[in-house]
Structures are given as C-alpha cells and as structure tokens.
Amino acid sequence: MYREKYDRIAGFYELLERPLDRFFNPLRESAVSLAEGKTLEIGVGTGKTLRYYPQDVELYAIDGSEKMLEMAKKRAKELGMDVKFKVAEAESLPFPDDFFDTVVSSFVFCTVPEPERAIEEIKRVLKPDGMAIFLEHTKSESELVNYLFLLPMKLILKPLLDDDPLRDTHKLVRKHFKVEKEEAYYSGVVRLIVAKNDKD
Fold first, then answer.
1. CATH assignment of 2-196, given 3.30.2160.10, 3.20.20.140, 3.40.50.150, 3.60.21.10?
2. What is the average pLDDT across 102-116?
3. Whole-model pTM?
4. What is an example of a Pfam family matching this protein (predicted)?
5. Burial class of residue 181, CB neighbours in 10 A (0-12, 13-18, 19+)
6. Which of 47, 53, 137, 157 has the fewest CB atoms in 10 Å of its CB?
7. Residue 137 pLDDT more than 90?
8. Alpha helices in the chain (DSSP H)
9. Are 59 and 166 in contact (CB under 8 A)?
C-alpha cells in the first residue's frame, strides 16, 4: 500500500525529488496560484505547494501518509499559514457535498489506487461551477517517450511508491469535467489542466 511506502521515505522524500524541483516548482506555482476561495489540496505531501497559494485562500489539505502530513504541517507553521490538515484518502474525502470553490491535485493521480473514484469524490465536494486544477504526470502522446522514458520509470517507481507515470489522467479529467485549459509539458509527460465542475 502506498501509504506505508510514503511513510517510510518521508524523511528523505524531498532529497529524492530535488533534481526535479527546478522543472516542477514553476509549474506548481502556476497551478496553485489559480486557487480561489475555500480550497482543498489532495495529496499535499510535504507541502511543497503551500508557499504558492494566494493569501486570501481558505486552505484545507489531505494526504494518505501521516508522516508526509507532519512535514507539511511543519512547513505551514514556518510559512505562518493557517491550513486545516487531515489524514484522508482521495477516494473517500471527509467533506460534505458542494463544499469547496477549488480543488487542487499536484502529482497525485499517478499514485491514487482508484483514480475514477477519486475524480468522482472531487466532483462531489466541489461546488457547481467550482474549479478543479490538476498538475499531473501523464502518459505522453509519443509512444517513443513512453517506451524509452516512462516505462523504465514505472519499473522503478511502481514497486517503490506504487507510482504509475503511464496513466491517462488527462483523459479521465476530460471525461468528468469541462476542461477550460490544458497545457502539456515535456512531450505530455506533465500536464496542467484547469477544469470546471459542470454538474447540474
């Protein structure tokens, strides 16, 4: 189970990710800076995104790993932020229907065990016309990139973190939300998707 795996590596997780930060942090900032109103971040991890949120956002954050969440809490305190943290799974969000103006997911859906169910939960807790922001690892449109880069990554990351970088998360988002903007980076290996909850 991914929770136990992330608990085990929480102490050195950021060290493992540091080589990618110069590529991903600008994208995190672009994604998170769009948040408005009452906002939920799913899979907040160690809290790398926290410093990018607008000051007027009322922020809630969940993660399945208690150890990772402890690090996020420490970071929020250092930043002087008031964040409501909960240990929870994306597939079972502990919030009422139509509760949030914005939901943010940053590099999460490659690890979520049941992505379809998690998407349905995001729709449920979002207000009608609420905004969903996804910054995700996704399968590339290039089969060569998938074969030479993402498949080897999956062979390493799947046993280590239950991470599957070959998921079609962008297609799942399109299925359930009205996409307003989609930007592909690095041959589609990373995508930023901004979507509206068009439920009646």
1. 3.40.50.150
2. 91
3. 0.86
4. Methyltransf_11
5. exposed
6. 157
7. no
8. 2-9, 13-32, 66-79, 115-125, 143-145, 151-161, 169-176
9. no
